[in-house]
Design brief:
Layout: H1 4-12, E1 27-29, H2 30-42, H3 45-49, H4 62-75, E2 80-82, H5 88-100
Antiparallel strand pairs: 1-2
């Protein structure tokens, strides 16, 4: 997953902080996410912004992201997602560079 919201969800469910390095493996586990959804629903945006790894600017959408992540993982029967340190745009650039060399 490359979504910043998914990265923040992984962080609150126990994944390593960004400061621990770019190449540290991080994952978002469905069981952990399912445990957090009711907790996030009970919090205000201000309270969510105080969670580790959650930015104030994205705190208001964290619950919606958690619901989408939980539903997608359930629908596709995925137990965990590997969290990528880069965004989709970096992936597009890397793919383009790869094709330029061919």
């Amino acid at each position: 997953a490359t979504s910043k919201t998914f990265r923040q969800l992984a962080r609150i469910t126990g994944a390593a902080r960004s400061a621990e390095g770019l190449y540290v493996q991080r994952e978002l586990k469905r069981a952990s996410l399912e445990a957090w959804v009711p907790r996030l629903a009970a919090m205000t945006s201000t309270e969510r912004a105080e969670l580790p790894g959650v930015s104030e600017g994205r705190a208001h959408q964290l619950l919606a992201g958690a619901l989408v992540a939980e539903a997608a993982m359930d629908l596709f029967r995925v137990e965990s997602l590997e969290i990528c340190p880069w965004a989709l745009r970096e992936g597009v650039i890397l793919r383009r560079l790869d094709h330029m060399g061919q």
